[in-house]
Give the backbone structure.
Amino acid sequence: MAMIHIARPGLGQEEKDAVLAVMDSGMIASGAVVSDFEKAFSTYIGMPCAVACSSGTTALELALRALGIGSGDKVLTTSYSFIASANCAVYVGASPVFTDIDPTSFLMTPAHVRDALEKHPDIKAIIAVHLFGQPCDMEAIMDIAKQRNLLVIEDCAQSHGAMFNGKKAGSFGDAACFSFYPTKNMTTSEGGMVLFKDPEISEKCRLLVSHGMKERYHHEIIGYNYRMTNIAAAIGIEQLKKLLGYNKARQRNAARLNKYIANPLIQTPMISPGCEHVFHQYTIKAQDRPRLAEYLQSKEIGYGIFYPLTIPEQKCYAGMGFETSFPCADTVKEEAISLPVHPALTKEELDRIADAVNSFK
Ligand SMILES: Cc1ncc(COP(=O)(O)O)c(C=O)c1O
C-alpha cells in the first residue's frame, strides 16, 4: 500500500517545454513571459490590472503598500489562516485586528466585520481570506466597506477560480492576492500575483515590485526586489490552462468523499450558499483529532493540520497585546484536519481515504 499524500503538484510535459523555451531564450529573469502571465491571469479573474511577484506573502505586502496602508493603520483580518494573512499588516507598520470565524465555513463573516468595526471604528482595510477554496460573502462585505469607505483586499492564496454568486473570488475588492506555491490549486513553484481595479495603484505596485524603477537605475520610490521570474511565469501560463480541469477534479473528489464518508465522529465540509468551492483543502472536523491523525497515519493516508494555532496566539505575536480568545477558531483549531483531495487522486485512493475515515472508532 502506497502512502496517499496530502498534495501533489501536477507538472507535465507542457510546463517542462515552457521552462526549456525560457532557458533557451536566455531571458530567465523577469520579462515578457511575466507580462504574458499577468495578462492571462487578470483576464481569467476579471480584474483589469496585474503585477506578478515572488510569493503570496509579497503579493499581500505589495497590495497594502500600493493602497497606502501603513504606520498606525488598523487592518481587519481573520484569526484563523496562514500567518501571512496578518504578517503583511505588520510588515507595513499597520496593526492587525483579528476576527473569529464561522465554525462551519471556517471564514470571517459579514457579522464578524460589523462587530469588529463597532469595537474599532478606525479600521482602514479588510483582508477577506477565502480559506480552503471557499469565498467569503463578498457581496455583504463589499456593502459594508462601501458604507464605511474601507479598502478591501482579498487573500485568494487558496481560492484560484472560486466564485461567489457567479463572480470570481479576487474580482470584488480593491486588490486581490494570489499564491502559486506548489501545494496551491495552480503553481509556478514559488510565486504570487496582485490584481487591482485602479490602474494608478497598480502602477505604484509595479514600481514597488522592482526597486521603484521606471527607467533603468532611476529609482522613483524605495521599492523591493519582489519580482517573478520568466521561468516561474512560464510554468504559471501552462498551469492556468489546466486550472479549470484541476478545480473540477478537486470538486469531483470532494463530492465523492462527501458521499462516502459516513461516520458520526466526523463532520464533512459544507458549501456555503452562493459559493463555488474549489477545495484547495477538504477539511473535516473530528473531536478526537489526535487519535484520527494517528489512525490515518497507520493507514498511510496523508493529512494536514491547518492550522494548529490561531494567528494571534503564535509565539511571534506574543506580548503584542492582541486579543487571543476566539471561541469558534479555538474549537476549529483543535478539530480541523484536511484530507487529500488533489486532482491526481484515483477513485481507488479516494475510496481508501473514505474507508479509513469510516472505520475510525
Ligand atoms: C491564506 C494564505 N495567504 C497567504 C499565503 C502566502 O503565500 P506564499 O506561501 O506564496 O507566500 C498563503 C500560503 O500558504 C495562504 O495560505
Observations:
- The chain has two domains: 13-238, 243-358.
- The mean pLDDT is 98.
